[in-house]
């Protein structure tokens, strides 16, 4: 069974479709990231799941329970969904203990104490129960927010850009900590982000959103190696398109030589384009070569060389201990990789 199933969801603001026939299925104990550019409908999707807005059509099931359908609309407080947002929204006038206890009014005093103690221990803040939010660091506040969201044992956790206010130096440690906490608690979660680095670190599968739809759902390697379309390929990182003609079922003839693919697939015989990321291109000094470097940049462990290939700009790295000699001819080769071909 899925912990969340969304089918044919439609939502418009003032007649303008923002979610357009969206389908999404999240497995039990799975963390899925909704990843996409600004305005593609990520937050609106979360709000529809939480019941903070009412979609015009489509169905949403949380576990086996229908929370949104033709004749059904379960209000947010009855969906058993935990939420955690960018600004943490801790109550400033309540202590850490009181913040975590906030949603537990139905429990007896002793059960409440036990549950909050468990939660604070889980997020390593047992010593901080009497502090107020302003007496905590950003990362500690975020851990209180996760403790509060998990305290009443939600079936599903919704996280909207929860790490964007956290200092970059501690962000990835916090992401790893919160991921472990969610996995320990065996809760499914939907996480909204702009950042693919955060998404890779935090989630099991990524749903790339584009114009109100899921363009593709899969684990990071699957999306990288077999993007269904150009939107997905480009969203996951910089690259360029090169004219290419398939040759056999695992190589492509390009202006820069034969490119071997590590994945075999039936290919059409006509020309198309391959999407090549800078990491798949190697620059080197040769006896002859036509590659012109427009700019060289030293960034510590490597040099970045700005080049133009078939009218497209990109930066290609070389290790700092093996730089190019710009006074000599430069050539390139495209390394064997899982080639993305588009007809
Ligand atoms: N209350 C509203 N009234 C009208 N339009 C809205 C409203 N809220 C959002 N929108 C529009 O709906 C679209 C989707 O917004 P949404 O907040 O879901 O995007 P998002 O993918 O979460 O963006 P971001 O990454 O910038 O937070 C945007 O074009 C936005 O301008």
Set down the secondary structure blueprint:
Blueprint (H helix, E strand, L loop, with lengths): L1 E12 L2 E12 L3 E5 L6 H9 L6 E6 L2 E5 L2 E2 L7 E5 L10 H6 L7 H14 L15 H14 L4 E5 L7 H17 L3 E6 L2 H7 L2 E6 L2 E6 L1 H6 L4 H6 L4 E8 L3 E4 L2 E4 L11 E5 L4 E5 L7 E6 L3 E8 L2 E8 L10 E5 L5 E3 L1
Parallel strand pairs: 3-9, 3-10, 7-8, 8-9
Antiparallel strand pairs: 1-2, 1-4, 4-5, 5-6, 10-11, 12-13, 12-15, 13-14, 15-21, 16-20, 17-18, 18-19
The chain binds adenosine-5'-triphosphate.
The site of adenosine-5'-triphosphate has 11 residues, from helix 1.
Summarize the structure in words.
By secondary structure, this protein is an alpha+beta fold. It has two domains: 2-234, 3-Layer(aba) Sandwich (Rossmann fold); 238-342, OB fold (Dihydrolipoamide Acetyltransferase, E2P), CATH 2.40.50.140. 23% of the residues lie in helices and 37% in strands. The chain has eight helices and 21 strands. The strands form five sheets. The protein has a six-stranded mixed beta sheet, with helices on both faces. Strands 2-1-4-5-6 form a five-stranded antiparallel beta sheet, with helices on one face. The longest helix is centred in the middle third of the chain and has 17 residues, at 168-184. Adenosine-5'-triphosphate is lined by residues 13, 18, 36, 38-44, 194. Adenosine-5'-triphosphate binds at residues 13, 18, 36, 38-44, 194.
